[in-house]
Amino acid sequence: MEFNDVVHGHRSIRAYEDREVSQEVLERVLDAGIRASSSGNMQSYSIVVTRDKALREKLYTPHMDQSMVLDAPVLLTFCADFNRMRKWLELNDAPVHFDNFMSFMIGAIDATLASQNCALAAENEGLGICYMGSTLANCDQIGELLNLPPNVVPVVGYSLGYPAESPALRDRLPQQGLVHYEQYQDYSDERIQEIYKDRNEKGWKRYMDVPHLKEMTEQLGLKNLAQIYTIAKYTKESHLDFSQTVLNYLEKQNFMQNGEAK
To answer: 38, 155 in Cβ contact below 8 A?
Structure first.
């Protein structure tokens, strides 16, 4: 495929063929991830490949009962990982730290960069993916199921397999609404309305075209897409709960040290 076709043809795939992904194809996808940019070339991430059906069944609940966890033949979980590097430092008589929040952020960025390289390579192979925000939201449960040691935290994950659907492309905000030249230019009310005009119309239509989403919207008395986002999908309460889950897990996984290196 042409690069622009891969990038501009991205869709989230939630339905998959009953067809395995060969090891040869999978390794090409993973090799693309390993070539991603990395802070200091530390490659402070690990990729967990989950094919086992029984394990995917266990992951189904912490992944918020999303069907592709069971239907896709592969799950990829990209983790911030300083466990490996800390062991290497110790073996080479170097100070062993990288146990703080900044280290987690470096690992999280490395993991995310690798995940997107893999995603592009997968789509170039004719595979489909669907990112799952549940990977970070329920990082503690997922980390336990994946047997992650200290200094490893799941950050990004997605299903992987051959698509059994071809959904319409989702809208994106216009470039002029996202890109700032030289310095950040804050938004006027008028510009906000202009930037979100298509999103308001197309996003609302998408909800109204799906019977169960339309029913939910009507039951909650929602009048626009902004209300759907903040009352139905991403409530303040849920984000506060997930935030605490992540912070607690970072502490458990040794990423919140503030004192002497250890």
So the answer is: no
Mean pLDDT of 169-191: 97
Mean pLDDT over 148-163 rounds to 98
185 domain-assigned:
no
CB-based burial label for 178 (10 Å; 0-12, 13-18, 19+): exposed
Answer whether residue 190 is part of any domain: no
Q: Could you tell me if residue 225 is inside a domain?
A: no
Q: Kindly report the number of other CB atoms within 10 A of residue 85's CB atom.
A: 19
Q: How far is CA 22 from CA 29, 48, 74, 160, in A?
A: 11, 16, 10, 12
> 71 and 138 in contact (C-beta within 8 Å)?
no
Q: What is the pLDDT of residue 262?
A: 43
H/E run at residue 129: strand 128-131
What whole-number distance in Å separates Cα of residue 257 and Cα of residue 252?
Answer: 10
Assess if residue 26 is contained within a domain.
yes
Range 49-53 contact pairs with CB under 8 angstroms and sequence separation of 24 or more: 49/74, 49/75, 49/76, 50/74, 50/75, 50/76, 50/77, 50/146
Report pLDDT digits (tens) over 7-40.
999 999 999 999 999 999 999 999 999 999 999 9
Contact 121, 6 (CB under 8 A): no
Could you tell me the pLDDT band of residue 258, with boundaries at 50, 70 and 90? confident
Can you give the length of the chain in residues? 262
What is the domain range of residue 156?
Answer: 3-167
Give the CATH number of the domain where residue 127 resides.
3.40.109.10
Query: Hey, what's the torsion of the CAs at 59, 65, 66, 67, to 10 degrees?
Result: 90
Number of domains in the chain: 1
Overall average pLDDT of the 57-81 stretch: 98
